[in-house]
Design a protein that fits this description.
Helix content: 25-40%
Mean pLDDT: 87
Number of domains: 2
InterPro entries: Cupin_8, JmjC_dom
Organism: Cirrhinus mrigala (Mrigala)
Pfam family, one: Cupin_8
Number of strands: 8
Order of helices and strands: EEEEEEEEHHH
Oligomer: single chain
Strand order of the largest sheet: 6-1-8
Protein name: JmjC domain-containing protein
Largest sheet: 3 strands, antiparallel
Length: about 160
């Protein structure tokens, strides 16, 4: 959900990453596998350096709007109190009724991810070369439906460097 972070006392560093960088953040659920964002293990997470980092330090009295889907990491620079206020902007049935804080994926996204896991399990029944072929076809299908603007940006970048 959208989030307003209010720093009451103390200082806190906040690092944000755009949803457009999701492919570089090594996300598992709503968490990144990269635990040390300041010194990431680039052998394990080589794409992490491609993610654009937005950073600020909150002082007492500061408010920071964190849009839904933005990955964020906080570090207390000194003892303090911060308050988060979340609000729902999708239709009510989009949210898991057992998730008052909105940390879970929207219901439709959760169902889609579960379907993907089942589909990947089904592909395991195929020999490796067939599994690879059909997985690549699936990736292309997903890219054509969900990442059109990103594909266009990449294509433009490739044309600019040619």
């Amino acid at each position: 959900m959208d989030n307003l972070l209010a720093q009451i006392t103390g200082r806190k560093r906040v690092v944000l990453y755009s949803p457009k960088d999701a492919l570089h953040l090594y996300l598992t659920g709503d968490k990144s596998e990269v635990l040390d964002i300041d010194s990431p293990d680039l052998e394990l997470y080589p794409k992490f350096v491609k993610a654009s980092r937005y950073e600020c330090v909150l002082e007492p009295g500061d408010l920071l709007f964190i849009p839904a889907l933005w990955f964020h990491n906080t570090l207390a620079l000194q003892f303090g109190v911060g308050v988060n206020v979340f609000w729902r902007h999708l239709p009510p049935d989009s949210y898991d009724k057992k998730d008052p804080y909105g940390n879970k994926d929207p219901v439709a996204a959760s169902r889609a991810l579960q379907s993907l896991e089942r589909t990947l399990g089904i592909l395991e029944e195929l020999p490796p070369d067939y599994r690879d072929f059909y997985a690549r076809r699936m990736v292309l299908r997903i890219q054509s439906r969900a990442y059109l603007s990103q594909i266009m940006e990449v294509a433009q970048g490739n044309l600019d460097t040619a």
